[in-house]
Amino acid sequence: MGISYDPTKGLFHLRSPGSSYVLQVLETGLVAHVFWGGALRQPVELGRIAPQLFGEAPATPVLGEAPYPRLSLDLLPQEYPAYGRTDFREPAYQVALDDGSTVTDLRYQSHQIYPGKRPLVGLPATFVERGEDAESLDLTLADEHAGLEVVLTYTVYRELNVVTRSARFTNKGSRRLRLLRAFSGSVDFPDDRFELLQLSGAWARERHLWRRPLVPGIQAIGSTRGASSHHQNPFLALLRPETDEHHGHAYGFSLVYSGSFLAQAEVNHYGQTRVAMGIHPLNFSWLLEPGEIFQTPELILVYSDRGLNGLSQTFHDLFRRFLLRGPYRDRPRPVLLNSWEATYFNFTEERLLELAREAQALGMELFVLDDGWFGRRNDDTSSLGDWEANKAKLPRGLKGLGEAVNDLGLAFGLWVEPEMVSPDSDLYRAHPDWCLHVPGRSRSLGRNQLVLDLTREEVRRFIVDRIGAILRSAPIAYVKWDMNRYMTEVGSAGLPPERQQETAHRYILGLYQVLEELTEAFPHVLFEGCAGGGGRFDPGILYYMPQIWTSDDTDAVERLKIQYGTSIVYPLVTMGAHVSAAPNHQVGRVTPLATRGDVALFGNMGYELDVTRLDPEEKAAIQAQVVRYKRLRALIHRGDFYRLLSPFEGNETAWMVVAKDRREALVGFYRVLAQPNPRPSRLRLVGLDPALEYELVGQGERWDGDQLMEVGLTVEPYLANTGGDFQSVVLHWRAVGPGKE
């Protein structure tokens, strides 16, 4: 495994256990993309698989360069395509020169292959802790006329079918350059026999699955909201039409970035497909003075020949091992009670402690105080930015409350929204220019708030100092970091006119700097990301916060789709999943407590309801749920996840987690609506060891692994109640004895 280079043919071969990625430097210095897919023993040259590329095509301009005088870039598969020189497809980058022209021409200069992986300055990215875990390639390209140098960096992981890509631009000349587009990567496929998979939705219904065939032209998803968004996730996949969960070829693209992005697949007139992904070019430009550098975010490429589930498991393993950081990457995640749906803004210290006492009695481990604890915050119209405890609600402040919660045997957590400011706040009255704004334009509101300008050092310093002081002032073990407002009037009083279109990206860089400082200063704190729920659920945030609030929608039925879709890319250990009240506060649905617990079990389980109003039967049920979760969370968070039945395709959902050694498994089955005279539901399990015998924990029933996978279970005997809507069951299997011959 690793990276090899054949100088006689100009071939680079990036090899992982089950995949190959091949690129070739042609005699002209152009860098062609040759292949990405299943593992090759030896790399193949471009000319052997696509000789027609070097013959003239109708109505197609050619470069006229020896030794390929009829070569057109409009047909050549390229590693990092440019605009303006015979390629009419969308480019990976575009640069405006000081003379106003936008034609560039990158050619190979040199390369370096080295063990391990270097960090990206100022940006989150996957990493390695040992040099032998990965190998990297820096491919240096240059346009000498423009004074432009671009270094394409690739990393291949030793144990995973993963290639990461990024690009670094340097102005090596004496004149200004302006980046107009800077994607993180681009991949050209020789055909268009694919279906595109995307994760799209809206607030309270994030990351739903959409799958559609490619057609000629551009198919794109993206966000221009200044955040990765509820509406689109920075991920897409190309699947062969026959690919399903467990069979077939899949190609996944995930961007390690939390701001506006664009991901697109373009099919040209010869059926070639180009996939490109990176920072959204709308309202983006970046001025490069002589000597200045611009680094793109990292793009993760994952290949699977084991269907969509194989693609997901590779992403899950990569993120758990090489993206999540800090002590909580490997620690058990605590069961929490969040105060929000129990009290909203209306609480006192005694009311909070009443909730905490009940949480402790139910076996929970963490009590979280949500919005409303600071300034004059009695609703969402004021006080963001005034991060001082409201003494009318908390007479002993956060320190007194936190210590009282600790005395009950619980850790203490806190909600904050540091990136925002309320117009009705002392902070805004003192610094009205600290928000994103455009002079002469009115300032639109979202949730009665504005966005602080994180491009400015003084604003970042305020956030780090103020939140740092809060975390030092009280025994805070958990922070829920929220963000409830997308960017409008995107401008900065701290930037000159020629750099105003850098504002949105500089904001994200500023956010990453703030998060880096705070997470480094407070490694004992478990940070959970939130953005009106799942509005910024992306790899960039996971680099700093090892879990994210999956959605503000806590309804168990809606969560089936949300958590199922999220699992396409993100492991269960990253998903905040709570049991809430019935009727549900978002959709008004009444579901059984058992079903709510069975859904939330497959994530970071918590509770968000008034536990003081539960009857004895409900309390006993929650106690049992908490005990079960604590017993199983290591399996849930570290095992291999399999999707069995899709909520997007029928009335039933099923999924399971299998331990890495395949000696333990957990299966969740959910039926949304009852049906008259239903046919039995047979569920075939996957991922088990066919040579092992498995016992159903708590019932003593035994099945061979091959029977569970090939014959399957009839689900009805395991359901507590076969009548009524919203049924569910969780089955825990454990191997008994040694494997069979």
Describe it for me?
This protein is α+β, with helices and mostly antiparallel strands. Helix content is 19%, strand content 31%. It has 13 helices and 38 strands. The strands form 7 sheets. Strands 6, 7, 8, 9, 11, 12, 14, 15, 19 and 20 form a 10-stranded antiparallel beta sheet that branches. An 8-stranded parallel beta barrel has the order 21-22-23-26-27-28-29-30, surrounded by 6 helices. β16 and β17 form a beta hairpin. α7 runs parallel beside α8, α10 packs parallel to α11 and α11 runs parallel beside α12. The longest helix has 23 residues. The radius of gyration is 27 Å and the shape is globular. The protein starts with a strand and ends in a 5-residue tail after the last strand. The mean pLDDT is 96.
Helix content: 10-25%
Low-pLDDT windows of residues: none
Radius of gyration (Å): 27 Å
Oligomer: single chain
Task: Please state the overall shape, judged from the principal axes of the Cα atoms.
Answer: globular
Q: What would the average pLDDT be, to the nearest integer?
A: 96
Largest sheet: 10 strands, antiparallel
Number of strands: 38
Secondary structure category? alpha+beta
Report the span from N to C terminus: 32 Å
Q: Count up the helices.
A: 13
A few lines on this structure:
The chain is 19% helix and 31% strand.
